[in-house]
Amino acid sequence: MQNAAIAALGLNWCYLAFEVRPEELRAALAGARAMQFVGLNLTVPHKSLAMDMVDALDESARTWRAVNTLRVEGRDRNRAWLPIHQFTHEPPDKVRLQGFNTDADAIVRSLREDAGLELRGKRVLLLGAGGAGGVAALKVASEDVAELFLVNRTPSKAASIAAEIRRRHPNVRIQLGYPRGEVDLAMNATSLGLAPNDPLPLDEQQFSLRQARTVYDMIYRPAETPLLRAAKAAGCRTANGLGMLLYQGAKALEIWTGRPAPVEVMRQALKKNIYG
Ligand code: ATR
User: Which ligand 1 atom sits closest to the C-alpha of 153?
Assistant: First the structure.
């Protein structure tokens, strides 16, 4: 999706994938800075490791304690930090890496644009309390939902996220376990559904999909998980996690270029590459 967007913007850039071992991350980042790459994305497990390895952290990275996007910046004559690609005539006197997080905002954007859901005042059931689930829970809570129910195989992980939400967002009612009655959104942030024979990520004895108006699965491959299939059969509105992947990438591109991302070009490229 990034190369399709780069072509659409007419930039003479190229987006490449590198496999980097965690113990080599510091060296890889130093190399990217030395070679004055425009920027980088990081994925698991580098997102949290990089917090201590960058020269500056945007507020988004500080809030989510994870870095998925890096911008290489140069210092100009007026001591202002600018994207490195803007230094076409005079070299910068210093170069630094700034870390951002574009994952959390992508969750809310995908819920809004792909599932037609505004979170404010809503009742939400979130399944999963791992890396992705933790960020999703905190982000959803920060959108002033009315009530958030957290369910996880390992209850202590859900409990520690709930404690953090109570600290950060005291107005959100947060409960561990399944809700009674209806919810506006049930969201899967577990890895159940990645494999074809996975069970549903929820206990149907305790929660029926008929209780959910919208069901969102953060998994995007397969396009239709068993959860989404069951949710459609129960009459729910559904969306998968492709939008999250798309919008975190679109925001990263905007951070690098300073220009609006061609989102539909990126969406088509993603669909073609992922679903064939
Ligand atoms: P990610 O970065 O994708 O969030 P993760 O941090 O390993 O990956 O989290 C995986 C999530 O899927 C967790 O909520 C995990 O539950 P636990 O916290 O109990 O490990 C959940 N998960 C994975 N396999 C599961 C299974 N077989 N049944 C129920 N939940 C499962």
Answer: 19
pLDDT (tens digit per residue) in 172-217: 999 999 999 999 999 999 999 999 899 999 999 999 999 999 999 9
**What's the CATH code of the domain at 7?**
3.40.50.10860
If one counts the domains in the chain, the total is: 2
Residues 6+ apart with CB under 8 A from 192: 198, 199, 200, 201, 227
CA of 35 to the centre of ligand 1 (A): 37
- Overall pTM surpassing 0.85 (yes/no): yes
DSSP annotation of 148: E
Asked if 9 and 257 count as a contact pair (C-beta separation under 8 A), the reply is yes
Per-residue pLDDT reduced to its tens digit, 29-39:
999 999 999 99
237-240 sheet: strands from edge to edge: 173-176, 147-151, 123-127, 183-188, 212-217, 237-240
